[in-house]
Amino acid sequence: MLLRDKLLVRLGMQGIYEISCLIHRKDDYLSFVQYMWDENPRVARNAVWVLTHSTQEEIGWLQQRREELATLLLQTSDTSLRRMVLNLLERMTYSQEDVRVDLLDFCLEHMLSPEEPSGVQCLCMKLADKLCAHYPELIEEFRCTLENMELEYYSPGLRTVRRNLMKKKRI
Q1: Considering only CA atoms, which of 104, 112, 106 is closest in space to residue 138?
Q2: pLDDT on residue 2
Q3: Is 50 in contact with 87 (CB distance < 8 Å)?
Q4: Which helix (H) or strand (E) segment is 132 a member of?
Q5: Which residue, of 49, 125, 139, 140, has the fewest CB within 10 Å?
């Protein structure tokens, strides 16, 4: 059975494990990323779902494809896909040169958006924190945004993420 065929069906943990075993080498792993752009929404979602089960070493490999993931995040209207791509991006490391303004703007907008599920809001908040980390002026703006949130409108999970970020020494 071809790899794409495995992504066409509903995947459980066993299916994710099988696919992960097939793409355990760096080159296989990086070429697997092409499936997140598949025209079939199920294939794309399943591919990203498999990637969310990556080890930290594999996330390190995936850093080479961070721009593609960010572009996918900014272009998709699929909430499920958005949450999983955010999960991947949030697990990556960022240097000062890695900050994409459009990605940061997306995170700042969607972390406060009542239309977004709380999982997307929380991941946007965590990613925005990482993206702001190298710029004192952005850290201050982010801190002000967190302080001015009207907490009664947000889920307990989002309030917890906010509280944990506020506890950090720099906020």
Answers
A1: 104
A2: 85
A3: no
A4: helix 118-132
A5: 140
